[in-house]
Design goal:
Blueprint (H helix, E strand, L loop, with lengths): L2 H23 L2 H17 L1 H17 L4 H7 L3 H16 L7 E6 L5 E8 L2 E6 L4 H12 L3 E5 L5 H17 L7 E3 L6 H7 L7 E5 L2 H10 L12 E5 L5 H13 L8 E7 L5 H10 L3 E4 L1 H6 L3 E2 L13 E7 L1 H12 L4 E5 L3 H10 L4 E4 L18 E3 L7 E3 L5 E8 L7
Parallel strand pairs: 3-4, 3-6, 4-5, 7-8, 7-12, 8-11, 9-10, 9-11, 12-13
Antiparallel strand pairs: 1-2, 2-16, 14-15
Helix pairs in contact: 1-8, 2-5, 2-7, 3-7, 5-6, 6-7, 10-11
Length: 417
């Protein structure tokens, strides 16, 4: 590993640790003012951010980057405004630091409280989406953590422009500038150095493609909060309202095909009488449909291969299968799902509750699009990512997911004796 990269990350982590200690003692209002100032600077710097982003997008297209990844990379005035608004929204959220999770008084009079505290220094390793720079910074600062950001080389100019605006705002409000640091090099050795920074970085959050997340999970000596794939399903039950089903299925797949909450597989109850209409709606929306034998028998679509059921397309492609009711749908999801987001469209409440209780995913929805798998849509402000594991945090990870807790005891001279 490049020694310079190791030294660079070590120095950044040391500065981050000092900044985290300052943040941990700052008031709720001070952190909020810092984020409001950062949001204002992003708005002011919109032209500079757009110019930097245009260079990144042009370079990506020249390099042959896929349309889905280019969509993730591209910023426009509306997306920059949304980025700034998300930062400002995080400033208005309740500060989790210091919240008492539970409290108890022991028979001897000792008062014990379990209280939220920041995790410390968080490393974010991400690809393509420059808005992660702003989202991650806002969430980490609001929850009292310092953050080290390592964005992808394809978004290097955009990330630098956004980071410069953020730091300018934080500094103007009196917050430590080292609370938000951007790794200045694109060398992959910097990723390895972050993954090996046990004791210097407290948590790694990867946001990117399967290969990046797999590498992080395989190599990290630091705890990791991640998901590999968003192989999300929409199951349309026999009881589903046809108009609702068509609207949800098309939105879940086609609103934005490149996001991790996009539907990749449509499951249709064998008893649903309007299956061909759902397939036609997807085709009309310019989605390529790959179906099982039953689907191919009712529509002129490509035959799905075995790999299709385990593929996160992030494109205008959907695999479609006919299932034997809700139990068949749940069995399919258990075999092929990624524990990210799955939805049922049904009017039968008992069937819906069976699905909601039986599907083991971080987000399970009834009569709603999988595209709602987003921290902002959950009222959490921005999000650091969607976690699909079972420990610490699950689903959209926002402020509470970036805290841990400690026990505080208040006594009056108690001794155990």
């Amino acid at each position: 590993m490049d020694v310079d990269a190791v030294e660079l990350i070590a120095a950044m982590a040391e500065r981050a640790r000092i900044a985290a200690a300052v943040l941990a003692t700052m008031s709720d209002s001070a952190k909020a003012r810092g984020l409001e100032a950062a949001a204002d600077r992003v708005r002011v710097a919109a032209a500079d951010i757009l110019a930097a982003n245009a260079e990144d997008v042009a370079a990506a297209r020249t390099a042959g980057v896929s349309a889905a990844l280019c969509d993730r990379l591209t910023l426009d005035p509306a997306r920059i405004a949304a980025m700034a608004d998300a930062i400002a929204t995080v400033a208005t959220l309740d500060d989790p630091v210091g919240q008492v999770i539970d409290a108890r008084t022991r028979p001897n009079g000792l008062i014990l409280t379990r209280t939220r505290v920041p995790i410390g220094v968080i490393g974010i390793i991400y690809e393509s989406r420059p808005n992660v720079t702003a989202d991650a910074a806002a969430l980490c600062v609001r929850s009292g953590n310092a953050v080290i950001l390592r964005g992808g080389s394809e978004a290097v100019r955009s990330n630098r422009a956004i980071h410069a605006a953020l730091v300018e705002g934080l500094a103007a409000a009196g917050l430590p500038v080292d609370a938000v640091q951007l790794v200045p090099i694109t060398d992959r050795a910097a990723v390895g150095a972050m993954l090996a920074a046990e004791g210097a970085i407290d948590l790694i959050v990867p946001r990117g493609g399967k290969s990046l997340v797999a590498r992080v999970q395989a190599e990290a000596r630091v705890p990791v909060l991640a998901h590999l794939d968003g192989i999300n399903h929409v199951y349309v039950d026999a009881s589903a309202d046809p108009a609702m089903a068509a609207a949800i299925v098309v939105d879940a797949k086609m609103r934005r095909t490149g996001v991790c909450g996009a539907m990749e597989t449509l499951l249709i109850d064998r008893a649903y009488p309007h299956a061909s209409a759902l397939i036609a709606a997807l085709s009309a929306a310019r989605c390529e449909v790959r179906g099982d034998a039953a689907v191919c028998a009712m529509a002129d679509v490509a035959a799905a291969q075995a790999a299709d059921w385990d593929t996160e397309y992030l494109d205008a492609i959907a695999s479609v299968a006919i299932t034997d009711g809700v139990e068949g749908a749940m069995a399919h999801i258990a075999r092929h799902g990624s524990h990210h987001t799955d939805a049922i469209v049904a009017e039968d409440a008992a069937v819906a509750e069976r699905f909601l209780g039986g599907v083991d995913s971080a987000i399970v929805l009834w009569n709603a699009s999988t595209q709602f798998a987003d921290g902002g849509e959950f009222g959490l402000g921005a999000e650091i990512g969607i976690a699909t594991g079972r420990l610490h945090a699950r689903g959209p990870v926002a402020l509470e997911g970036l805290t841990t807790y400690k026990w505080i005891g208040r006594g009056s001279g108690q001794v155990r004796g």
